[in-house]
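Support request, please re-run this one:
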Amino acid sequence: MSDSEQAPVQGFDPATVKYFRDDVFLPSSEVERAIAALVLRRGAMTQAQISREINRPQQTVSRLLSRLVERGSLRPGERVSTGKRGQLSVKVEIVPDYAWSFGIAILWDAVAVTLMNFKGEIIGSRQRVMTTMSHDAVVVEVRRMIGELTRQCSIDPHRVFAAGIGIPGTFMRETGQVNTPLVLEEWTNINLEEALSHDLELPVWVENDGNAAAIGESLFGVGRRARSFVYLYIATGVGGGVIQDGRLVRGVFGNAGEVGQLLPPLIYPHPNLKLLRELVRRRGVEVESVSDLVLNFNPDWPGVDDWIERVRDSLSLIVSASAALLDPAAIVIGGRIPESLTRKIIPHIEIFDQRRRSYERPLPPVIAAEASGESVSVGAAALPFTQYFFC
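Re-run finished. Output below.
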């Protein structure tokens, strides 16, 4: 057995993660994580299919699958024909209730919590618009939501692995802090993973909201068929995430994918829902907040076409830069933006191309996000799983 088959994934030390249940969730090797991720994305697979996909001998795959089945994260499924007369092969599949994760989205004006099982299925969710986004108010509401979901969904608390947090802002990795928008001032000067782990009595992983949404899309949306894409996260602000070969690109400081920074200040308006709210209100549509706008959105509202006219050049610049720098398989527009608005603006987005000899270079399609649920909390729920069980 090679070292890579038996050694836990590098960069993770359970001893440093408070409340980690090392007696329940044993660490996986890099290859075991690759196998589990493959079955998660593709569904039930045979040993031969897995062997081909990860380019490992079937004997090695058999040994690793036996270990994952013994551990309880995978299980034997249906028998299928191998194509040879009288021979059947057993598919392995994810065990949904092996582990549970809570995803928490701390938004500009609301909190959302998603409960996810090990298969990536959304079992329950809650969302509430908040009058204040103070630390204490948010923690009280999150604890209430988690308790409610745990009881109503009959979850074994010992099988809850962790919580993932998605929050807007840029990382200050050396301090464990996030430089949040002004409306989230109380969240700026604390180590979020330490504070929220204490508040929730769970292991906690924190990620930028755009990155969290991109992780969710990579597992449960466009990422099922496109291994590399750029995710544009449009909400009260605008950000994003980059997925390369199925993994989030974080950059040196954890801030890769901040596509809003591509726009020169005071020249190009930011394509966000705060601007959309201002424009529709000027035209007589009463929306109290961005959350209210998202909940009640109508693509035929007066002011929507004004927004498209204002931000199409900004989006064209972001999309063109992303396509030129990263050459992704797709550029995905998601976040809190209503899907009907996404589909309405996509035809107005241009990817700039300097043709040579009348040839167009291959360009990625601009498409709507496909992962269901509140994008940040769904991605945040998947975050602990991707950090520990999948890759």
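The radius of gyration is 22 Å. The first helix runs from residue 3 to 6.
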